[in-house]
Amino acid sequence: MPPEKYNPHYDPLVNKTPGCGADYAPTYWVDSAGMEPEDDGMVTADISVDTAVIGSGFTGLATALFLAREHHTETAVLEANRLSWGCTSRNGGQAQLATGRLGRRQWIKKWGETTARALHEEICQGFATFEAIIKDEDIDCDLTDRGHLYIAHKPGILARLADESELNNKVFSYNTRIISADELKAGYVDEQHSHGALLEPTGVGVHPVKLACGYAAAARKHGAKIYTSSPVTAWEEKQGYHYLITPKGTVKARRVAIATGGYTHASLNPCLSYRYMPILSNSVVTSVLTADQLAGCGIKTNMIMTDTRILRFYYRLLPDGRMQIGTRSAITGSDADNKKHYDLLINGLYQKFPALKTATIDYSWWGWVDVSHDMMPRIVQADNKNIFYALGYGGNGVSFSVQAGKRMAQRIAGVFDRKLETLPIYNSQLPAHPLRPLRRAGQRLLYHYYHGLDRVLP
Ligand SMILES: Cc1cc2nc3c(=O)[nH]c(=O)nc-3n(C[C@H](O)[C@H](O)[C@H](O)COP(=O)(O)OP(=O)(O)OC[C@H]3O[C@@H](n4cnc5c(N)ncnc54)[C@H](O)[C@@H]3O)c2cc1C
Fold this sequence. Notes:
Order of helices and strands: HEHEEHHEHEHEEHEEEEEHEEEHEEEHH
Shape: globular
Distance between the termini: 56 Å
Number of helices: 11
Helix content: 25-40%
Structural class: alpha/beta
Strand content: 15-25%
Bound molecules: flavin-adenine dinucleotide
Number of strands: 18
């Protein structure tokens, strides 16, 4: 069957499924990954399996890998389109020591210091899990220099970063440090309008498609099946079994793990209705930079970077000498290719690095990030009936999705450590939004407000 054409206007609040066998978004990652690993093709007959995982992004693949490798569970991944077609093949490849969108000070305010420390510990363990899988499964995914630069876009913000660094060091024993504007310029990058940075020791850049292909190959090696072009279009429950209907066959499963990220339609299962908000993020990649362009950016590292805007930019020099940058984009899928969103991103790039006005833009794409209504993900069992989900990463899923997959697999296998239930990401369902039809109007207002704040804050 020829691949369905890529639909740039796909919108999870409008379209019921993301497609069937649809082609990839035109990303640099897909273009530069090399061969796609083999998968098990489309579901073409009725099959029966212990656990079905819906979605083949980082979360679905990690869940399948852990289920197969650690728990010897018969597992089938069902992917609507091509392998890792969603956010996993479209992100910035920034693996940060983070989950969700809240910072450590906000954790303390919400849950107290003990829980905040335990959450930090879990995220550190998550990063270790992520690094261990890459090593143990021998995944070549273009790892960059270690660390993350959080760059102050206004002078007044450096004091806030200094506070954050002190909190990291004192409360969390996480040894971050402030670097001055001069040190930043001399040792890392000469970004215009930067006023110093918080340097985190943990963090790394990856090639996300190579990483996902590595997870997929490992999951299959350990016995999981990965079916592509197999969207779940309906879901029935009978006598304790789930029947997932795909275009050419029904998958009967005892348990189901939902790993559909920002591509989840509210109708997939009632347990998810309006429990997360899909938000568009876009990204561009330049041509390979010339020596003059590189010198103009004063860039001496390929460490991952973000700035301190509320509507932040994330960027880095890729290992082959291109620059990649992304930020928040349109509100709706129908507006995703409106040039004004591209212009906002490109202007951000040029403001940071005027020398790049002479570079061409070789790749431009966008994708739907899953943001929860309280800005934190959940990796939980839905109320009943052996349904599990890991969703709501809020744009911080490259590294933590592996730990989410590991924990979801433990829940499915019945070996989840109950001590972890003290953590807010494991002990409650994603909250549903009370004002469902107004969410996008609210988002529009918030974006205007945040853009204003990013401009006027000292
Ligand atoms: C432009 C962009 C930049 C980003 N940059 C970063 C970054 O630098 N660092 C970071 O940590 N995070 C980043 N993210 C977020 C990160 O990519 C995600 O958190 C992560 O990839 C989520 O993976 P996932 O497996 O949960 O979901 P996805 O990768 O989105 O996978 C979900 C899959 O489910 C499938 N699916 C949906 N419905 C069905 C159905 N009914 N039947 C079958 N299959 C279905 C979809 O086709 C899709 O392939 C970025 C995201 C975007 C869009």
